[in-house]
């Protein structure tokens, strides 16, 4: 089955959020994410890493998101599976388009965006 077929059959709507930074009135750097656009992609979990943080194990799920076509997704963007409410969030740590082979030319049948992601914990609000 092709990537387009997998995305069409098993894909989900993902909202792309991009980070913006600013300076607060007290001089601290602030960082916020704003929704840029949405794409239809298939998330393939690839494994889980475990880190020791403050004496306890902390697991992070890594994966790849396959999206048909070429899209403007950048490192440090976030992908959310819902627009609001209880969402799963993945931070982008790599993007490649196998159809753009650089030195060897273009392969139009491979035109897709493959995004390497790691799941991050949702922010806790009180």
What does this structure look like?
The structure is a single chain. This protein is mainly beta and 126 residues long. It has a single domain, classed as Beta Barrel (Thrombin, subunit H), CATH 2.40.10.270. It has 1 helix and 6 strands. The chain has one helix spanning 3-10; strands at 12-23, 29-53, 56-68, 78-80, 89-96, 112-120. Strand 4 and strand 5 form a beta hairpin. The mean pLDDT is 81.
- Give the overall shape: globular
Structure summary, number of beta strands: 6
Q: Give the CATH superfamily.
A: Bacteriophage SPP1 head-tail adaptor protein
Count of runs of 4 or more consecutive helical residues: 1
What is the second-level CATH architecture? Beta Barrel
Structural class, please?
mainly beta
**Helix content bin:** under 10%
Oligomer: single chain
Q: What topology emerges from the helices and strands here?
A:
Layout: H1 3-10, E1 12-23, E2 29-53, E3 56-68, E4 78-80, E5 89-96, E6 112-120
Antiparallel strand pairs: 1-2, 1-4, 2-3, 3-6, 4-5, 5-6
Outline of this structure?
The protein is mainly beta and 126 residues long.
Please tag this protein with its features.
single chain; 126 residues; mainly beta; Thrombin, subunit H; six-stranded antiparallel β-barrel; 1 helix; 6 strands; 56% strand; globular
